């Protein structure tokens, strides 16, 4: 998964690795349609729920740190069907 390098920061804090930012930007670029974005949202949401100690505040800081944006905040109760 392109976002695997982001896990360390999401759990422990510290510095966001360059590989995390590269993976995030690659993931965003690959999601060209609404359906792609919804599937990506579900993938990230489901994967995040399986990571012990994940800090959702840190997860949602990553796009800004990487100089990009995503059209939603990752939360345990995110409704990915509403992602455009």
UniProtKB/TrEMBL annotation:
Gene3D superfamilies: Plant lipid-transfer and hydrophobic proteins. It holds the Pfam family Tryp_alpha_amyl. This is Bifunctional inhibitor/plant lipid transfer protein/seed storage helical domain-containing protein. GO terms for biological process: lipid transport. Belongs to the plant LTP family. Residues 3-80 form the Bifunctional inhibitor/plant lipid transfer protein/seed storage helical domain. One of its GO terms (molecular function) is lipid binding. InterPro entries: Bifun_inhib/LTP/seed_sf, Bifunc_inhib/LTP/seed_store, Plant_nsLTP. It comes from Acer yangbiense. Transmembrane segments: none annotated.
């Amino acid at each position: 998964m392109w976002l695997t390098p982001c896990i360390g920061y999401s759990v422990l804090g510290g510095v966001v690795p360059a590989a995390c930012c590269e993976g995030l930007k690659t993931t965003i670029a690959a999601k060209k349609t609404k359906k792609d974005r919804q599937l990506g949202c579900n993938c990230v949401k489901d994967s995040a729920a399986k990571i012990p100690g994940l800090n959702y505040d840190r997860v949602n800081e990553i796009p800004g740190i990487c100089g990009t944006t995503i059209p939603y905040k990752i939360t345990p109760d995110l409704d990915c069907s509403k992602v455009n």
